Amino acid sequence: xxxxxxxxxxxxxxxxxxxxxxxxxxxxxxxxxxxxxxxxxxxxxxxxxxxxxxxxxxxxxxxxxxxxxxxxxxxxxxxxxxxxxxxxxxxxxxxxxxxxxxxxxxxxxxxxxxxxxxxxxxxxxxxxxxxxxxxxxxxxxxxxxxxxxxxxxxxxxxxxxxxxxxxxxxxxxxxxxxxxxxxxxxxxxxxxxxxxxxxxxxxxxxxxxxxxxxxxxxxxxxxxxxxxxxxxxxxxxxxxxxxxxxxxxxxxxxxxxxxxxxxxxxxxxxxxxxxxxxxxxxxxxxxxxxxxxxxxxxxxxxxxxxxxxxxxxxxxxxxxxxxxxxxxxxxxxxxxxxxxxxxxxxxxxxxxxxxxxxxxxxxxxxxxxxxxxxxxxxxxxxxxxxxxxxxxxxxxxxx
Length: 399
What we know:
GO molecular function: DNA binding; type II site-specific deoxyribonuclease activity
CATH architecture of the largest domain: 3-Layer(aba) Sandwich
Mean pLDDT: 92
CATH class of the largest domain: Alpha Beta
Distance between the termini: 50 Å
InterPro entries: Restrct_endonuc-II-like (IPR011335), Restrct_endonuc_II_MspI (IPR015291)
Strand content: 15-25%
Protein name: Restriction endonuclease MspI
Keywords: Endonuclease, Hydrolase, Nuclease
Pfam family, one: Endonuc-MspI
Structural class: alpha+beta
Order of helices and strands: HEEEHEHEHHHHHEEEEHHHHHEEHEE
Low-confidence stretches: none
Strand order of the largest sheet: 1-2-3-4-5
Shape: elongated
Helix content: 40-55%
């Protein structure tokens, strides 16, 4: 076997291992209720089992619904043979719901373009395919988690998915395979496969590092973030320290894992907000905020304190930047007792995006200032059963 074929074989083997590791992590670490079988084959009655896929995933909580997976590094080399297998499998095995071709997230930009183009063909109206889609390993992971968690109660589901998102970001930042790909992609990508390199690269580029130029010596990420002085959870979900050949960077990350358009982003005493805005308690804006906390809604504020409503309408929008810094990034909070609790980056995991703080503040003001209340990019209310004690702020996601 010549060297090129050896590299291709090793590359394909690593791609398959990558899918296996992802599936077993979901089952054994996250506790997703699925059954996994490596190697699937079937044939027509009294014929050889000639139609094969690499993995079968069975959803125990959904009448044993089955998904089949074919892993590959090359769309061009594998896709049409897989189409033929998929066509026959669908004729023989009615239990199979979805059939996916899956590629590593670390494939070259040329292969990724082929992947996207074929996905568009599959989902279009002018091409007949027996595949469900072409996905990266990470995209498949998200689909499996979403499917398996559909029947979980909403609150518990949010906790499961939120914790998984934090752990996933920590793991991908600490992944030595991603480090190797970053430092020397051209050579490393021939044999090293990653399900998260695309995300890793976007995060590092967002903190002004350049692939192949800024050599990564060490990355240490953690979601063990100290609590605020009131024992509450800080805005930071993950903190990462990156040592390169020329510098050391520390960035604190907030992870937004939601499919909703608006989400609660802050709950707390209005006195903390007054402190963050550097207002005196006697300031008319402070008094108006105190009145709002007591009544809990704009409608009641208009009815009971019409002058306070007018003050908020006229003045609160002047502090939009400071409000975003406080509600979203945790800046200027009197409860912060460690700089690790103040956020530098935001990651959205549903419609994936990474923002640094300054760019996001500018974007958020431009995009949402006309969609909130009191001229701010936020919706103002109170937590359930805590009217008069706290305010609750709802913000906009990128969905």
